[in-house]
Amino acid sequence: MSTISRRKFVTGGLAAAAGVSSLAVASRLSKKYGLVPPDSGGIYGPGETLTYAAQQLLARHSVAREFPRSMISKVPFANAIAPLSDEFKRLEAGGFAGWQLSIQGMVARPASLSLTDLKSFPVRSQITEVVCEEGWSYVAEWIETPLSEILKACGLLPQARYIVYFSIEPDWWESIDMNDAQHPQTLVAWAMNGGDLPVAFGGPLRLRVPRQLGYKSVKFVTRVMATDSLKGFVSSVEPKSPNFGYAWYAGI
Amino acid sequence: MRVTHWITVISFLALLLTGIEIVISHPRFYWGEVGHSQTATLFKIPIPSSRATVPSGYGYVLPDQNGWSRYLHFEAAWALVLTGLVYVIAGLWSRHFRKNVFPAPEDMTWSAFLSVISKHLRLAPANEADARSYNVLQRVTYLIVVFVLFPLVILSGLAMSPAFNAAVPWVVTSLGGRQSARTIRFFVSISVVLFFLVHIAMVVLTGFANRMREMIIGSAAIFKERL
After folding, report:
1. So what's the pLDDT on residue A196?
2. What tens digit of pLDDT does each residue of A172-207 get?
3. For an interface test with A, which of B20, B25, B36, B56 has the most A Cβ atoms less than 10 Å from its Cβ?
4. Widest pairwise Cα distance in chain A
5. pLDDT digits (tens, 9 = 90+) for B1-19
6. Is 90 exceeded by the pLDDT of residue A71?
7. In whole angstroms, what is the distance from residue A120 CA to residue A25 CA?
8. What residue in A sits closest to B65 (Cα-Cα)?
9. Which stretch of A116-120, A150-154, B98-102, B170-174 has the lowest confidence by average pLDDT?
């Protein structure tokens, strides 16, 4: 049996110390530059942090693929949703004329916008793919208002770091970082494939985040909140999670 | 090298288990860019699904395990890719690939392949050289696994990530679309699993205890157990 020599012991110790301190430096730097996702704790934290940091460092400004009109799926697919609430049914009966999207939190001018108000913003249409974490996908055209335009009009405050967005249905929300919130393809959609956005696909209003998986595109959105902390709102790690423990960053 | 092997084993098993869990949520495969429960499939696996929306033909739905499966899948993928990088760099640096893995040019003939295969079929006893070195069949298989299957499994996995496809669209395009990438990944994964099974069988057939001693501590009492 070999014994560990003193030199080996000293070099090993120094290497370990260097490793630990460089990890500490890396963790401080990555916090400073926003490379750490809110679900970075726990046993899956290292993997999530690597994925999120890699995306932030290498592809922060990338643009999701847009497809030619000929590639729009003839039959799109809507995942099952729980029976809709009475409040939703009441608004649906009124042709969604009473539907309001409220913008709150760290904005200078909180607002409540009707569908007609939303349509007065600059409109963008994009043909992008909806990708479910289960594996299936379809391509559709979405007609929408960029979220960044709405945030600009409401005077987004510089200290805001995340956007939390809520469905009218209970316990259904998601959150994204400011980079995704300001991304030109992150939109509040009200029309799909040339018609109104069908209820099954999230109508009258769905927040589309095409660089992430489908579960980040919350259906029936009524509230958007700007915040500097996700405490209480990180869907994937909070006990009241609407996502059953799915990763916060869903770009993969 | 031995450390990278065992990290690879742990990551591989984690990826396999969680990969199966994720496939169960949609055991249908397509070709092209898109596909879902209401479009035609290339093929489907006749198993029950963990989603009620999948027409599996079974009257029940399995529990949804995708949350932790996805977390673990990507963490194990990072462990495997980082370990693989260390392994490939170390292998080039120490000339492991050149010395032990790349077949000698004179072995790259059909007759050399056939001689190895027929030797196996005749169950000819191994000689000492077989225990110390890899034969041409082993070398070629190993090269295919390390330099073809692993890169393909990584690329086809990345081609299913919406953020990666936004950043590097040519990978998914060259694989024939997102659903094609998923289907390719399924077959590549099956090939890796087949390699894994044959590899384990070989280890067991050539003396499990001795091989394990080699793989863990690096030396073996050659032939003590076999002869």
Report:
1. 93
2. 889 999 999 999 999 999 999 989 999 999 989 999
3. B36
4. 83
5. 788 889 999 999 999 999 9
6. yes
7. 48
8. A244
9. B98-102
The angle formed by the CA atoms of residues A9, A14 and A19, to the nearest 5 degrees, is 125
Please answer yes or no on whether A137 and B36 come within 8 Å at the CB atom: yes
The model carries a pTM of 0.86
How far apart CA A169 and CA A83 sit, in angstroms, is 9
Nearest to B167 among A58, A73, A80 (CB): A58
User: Taking CB atoms and an 8 Å limit, are B36 and A58 in contact across chains?
Assistant: no
Total residues found in chain B within this entry: 227
Of B70, B78, B169, the CB nearest to A65: B169
Stated length of chain A: 252
Query: Taking chain B, what is the end-to-end CA distance rounded to the nearest angstrom?
Result: 28
* Residues B12, B87: Cα–Cα separation, whole Å: 15
Containing B23, the helix (H) or strand (E) segment is helix B2-24
